[in-house]
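Chain A, query sequence.
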Amino acid sequence: MGTSSSPSVSESAAVATGAISRPSLFGSQLPWADPAWYRAHASPYYGPSHAAFRLKVRAFVDKELTSSNCTAWDEKKALPRAIFKKAFEAGLLPGVVGPPWPTALVGRSFNPYPAGTNGPNAEFDAFHELILVDEICRCGSGGVVWGLVEGLQIGLPPVLLFGSQALRERVAPSCLRGDKVICLCISEPTHGSDVANLKCDAQLSEDGTHYVVNGEKKWITNGMFADYFTVAVRTGKPGSAHKGISFLLIERNMPGVSTRQMLCSGVWASGTAFVTFEDVKVPVDNLIGKQDEAFKYIMYNFNHERWGFVVQANRFARVCLEESAKYAMKRRTFGKRLIEHPVIRWKLAEMARQVEATHAALETLTYQMCTMNKTEQNAKLGGDIALLKVQATKVFEYCAREAAQIFGGASYVRGGQGEKVERLYREVRAYAIPGGSEEILLDFGVRDAVRRYESQSKM
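Chain A, predicted structure.
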C-alpha cells in the first residue's frame, strides 16, 4: 500500500459521481495519522458530500499550507492577505463560521465537490465544518490556523447572529470573502475568563449619535492585521457586572485605535495583539444587538468557539502522534529502529488511545449539534463541550510531551525533522487557557450538570 496523502483514483471517481455508500481508504494510512473513517471504518456521520469536501480541503492544505509557508509566516508573525482570498476562492473560508452556509452574503452556494467534479446538492453541516478545521490543522501550526480561521470563527458570529441587517451586509461579505479580517476583543490585562467584570468603557454621547470608547484588550488573535474589532465594552454603571456589557463593532480606521505585537511563546503567525482604544468615537449603528445585553451574546458564542478548540487541539495531538510514528519507523538507536523498542510502542499506544477516544467523543457532540438549533445547543451542550475542551487540551499536552521525548534533541530545534513537534509543544498553552481555562471549564461542567439535574428534578 502506498503512503501518499492523496486519495485513490477510484475514490476520486466515486466522489465525483456521489456513489460512495461507505468510507474508502484516504490518506497515508500511517497508524492513527487520520480519524477512523479515513481508514474505511463504517460511520453513520459521513456521506458522499463529506468525502468530497475532505478531498477539496486536503488539496488546498497540501498546496497552500506547506511546511515552508508555515515557517515563513511564523517568522513574519503574520499571514499574507492573499491566503484569505485563496481560501475563499477554494470554497472553504465561509465554512469556518459554522452552518448554515452564508449563501446570501458571499454570493455563492455551498459546493463540496472539487473542481471538475459534480454530485448531488448538499447542505453544509457541522461535520463539514469539522472536516474543514481538522484538515487545516494538518499543517501543524497553531499560528497559521488561528491566523487564517480563528478571528473569523469567533469574531464574525456576533455580527451575523445579533447585528442589524445593515451592519451584517456592510461587514460580513468582505470578511467571508477574504477581503477583510475581523477579530474578537474580550480579554483584558486584568480580566480573562472573568468576562463579567471587564473594564473597557463605552459612554454614549450626549446627542446619542456615538459611543466614546476607552480601554485595553489583550491577547487578541488577528489583532495586528484586523480591519474590524468585535469589542465587548462596559456600557452599564460601575458594578453592573454581566448586566452592563455591550458589543461594538470598531473599525481600524477610527481615530484612537492602536495595536502592538505581543511576543508570545507560540501561535506567532496569528498576529496576537495588545489593543488600545483612546477616545474612539463609534457610531451607534455599530452597536451589535441591544445595549447592556452582550454578556448573553458572548456566552452564546462560546460553545462554537470551544468546539473549534476541541477540533484543533485533537488534530494537533494527532499530528504529534503521526510525526512520532513516522520518526520511530526510520530513526535507529542501539542497532534497531525506535519502533522496535517496547517503550516507544507504549508511548505511541498511549497517545493513540487518547486521540482516538477524544475524536469519537467529538463526533458524538458534533452529531448533537446537527440535531439541535442554537438555543437548544446552548441549553444542553455547554457543559459537555466545556469538559471535552479540557479533554482535548490535556491530550494535546500529553502528546506534545511524548512526541518531544520520542524525537529527543530534534524536538528542541526549530526546523528540521522535529519542526512540527517543537512548534506544537510551544503552543499547548494557547489551547489550554483561551476560551476558558481548564480549571474554569471543569468547574463549569460540573455546575452545569448539577443545574440541569436539579431543574429536571423539580419538574
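The longest helix spans residues 294-330. The longest strand covers residues 210-220.
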